Structure formats: structure tokens, C-alpha cells
Predict the structure.
Amino acid sequence: MLNDESHPSLSAAAAAASALLPVAVLGAGPVGLAAVANLVRRGMPFVLLEAAETVGASLLEFGHVRLFSPWRYNVDPTMAEMLGRDGWTAPPEDELPLAREIVDRVLRPFAALADIAPFVKLQTKVIAISREGFDKVKSEGRAEAPFVIHAVERGAPIELRARAVIDATGTWQKPNPLGASGPWLSEKQPQRRRSSMASRTS
Ligand SMILES: Cc1cc2nc3c(=O)[nH]c(=O)nc-3n(C[C@H](O)[C@H](O)[C@H](O)COP(=O)(O)OP(=O)(O)OC[C@H]3O[C@@H](n4cnc5c(N)ncnc54)[C@H](O)[C@@H]3O)c2cc1C
């Protein structure tokens, strides 16, 4: 059976093919979109995968909350520069935005830019990431193999190849357990209460 060790050229070919693939950014929150802006600045192709129907979905869950960081800490400079070319006006640096204002005034206009919108896949939830042709017991050549991203797009399973993956899925939907020693079954009850409180206040 052929492997990368006996045929080093296979590995070089795989690396060259992988370099042509986009970078996959997972999650269209403030961090994922700032990553996208910086990829565009470097001329690197990307695809942005977002589980929700909109960018900034986590922020919208507590959209009514006034943040403790003023605007100047909430707008990535590269995003601001790209938006500025499109006639966007920056919000007042020292004011404290509501969480939903970040989405309305920055994230949505940015995601709608002509350089960005065609590469944003909404309602696409990533469920697993692997390396093409590599199961868990193979390691030789793994670093050169493209990533395979398994996702569910509007209910249908899809697979995408990527040269690199930036995980910007945040912590909002994956909070740390309260207990210092890990998950604690009784946390499920307060978690349910938190979700119903959030839906009552939004
Ligand atoms: C009440 C409150 C107030 C806050 N105030 C401040 C503040 O004043 N200043 C401050 O700096 N921070 C504040 N934060 C924290 C701030 O909201 C987070 O730091 C910020 O949202 C993190 O951005 P992110 O892009 O990493 O993650 P998120 O905003 O959580 O974005 C992650 C995105 O990934 C998507 N996603 C998740 N899983 C998947 C998947 N499997 N596949 C595809 N997409 C996926 C989600 O739908 C979401 O859109 C506050 C948080 C809360 C709760």
C-alpha cells in the first residue's frame, strides 16, 4: 500500500492542493467576522459557516443588554476600514452600545459587503472536522491533508474542504460547567431556567 513515507511527492502534491482551498471560519460572531476581514486583507479565500439564520446570533440573544465596552473596543480596525470604503460611518468611540447595536451597525453591514456576502453560509451548523483520508490511527502526512468540515446546511448534510480552520464558535452555546470538577447533572435545571428567562426578556 502506498503511503506518504514511501512517496514523499504525494505529500507535496497534497500540500499544494490544500493551499488552494479556502480557510473555513466557523461562527459569524464579532470574532469570526474580524477573522474574515483579516483574511480578505491578506488576499486569502475563505468560507464563513454560521449555524444561525443571521450573523451575530449570540449577541442578539441578549440584544437588550448595554455592554461594558465602548464602541472603540467592539469594531475591528480592518472591518472598519473595509466598511469605510462603502460609505459607513463609525459609531461614537466612547459610547456604550447595546449588544444588538453591534449586530445592526457593524456585523450585518460588514457581512453584506460585496467581498464578503457570497462566502457566508448561514444556517450551516458544523458538526465535526476531520482530515481528508485520515482516521484517528494515521498520523504521517496528516498536517498536509485538507480539513474536511462536516456540517448541516438547512437540514441537509454537506462536506467542505479547507486549508485551515478558525474556530470562532464562541462560548455562549457551550458554557463551562459550574462545578470545578466538571459537569454536574443538577446544572441542567438552572440552564433550562436561564433559557426561558432569556426568551422572556428578549
Ligand atoms: C450579557 C453579556 C454582556 C457582555 N458584554 C460584553 C462587553 O461589554 N464587552 C465584551 O468585550 N464582551 C462582552 N460580552 C461577551 C461577548 O458577547 C463575547 O465576548 C463575544 O460575543 C464573543 O464573540 P465570538 O465571535 O467569539 O462568539 P459569539 O458572539 O458567541 O459568536 C459565535 C457564533 O458562532 C455560531 N456557532 C456556534 N456554534 C456553531 C457551529 N457548530 N457551527 C456554526 N456556527 C456556530 C453562533 O451561532 C454565533 O453566531 C458579553 C456577554 C454577555 C453574555
Helices lie at 8-19, 30-41, 57-61, 77-84, 99-111, 188-201. Residues 26-32, 49-52, 57-59, 62, 65, 67-69, 125-126, 168-170, 172-173 surround flavin-adenine dinucleotide (CB under 6 Å). Confidence is low (pLDDT under 50) at residues 1-7.
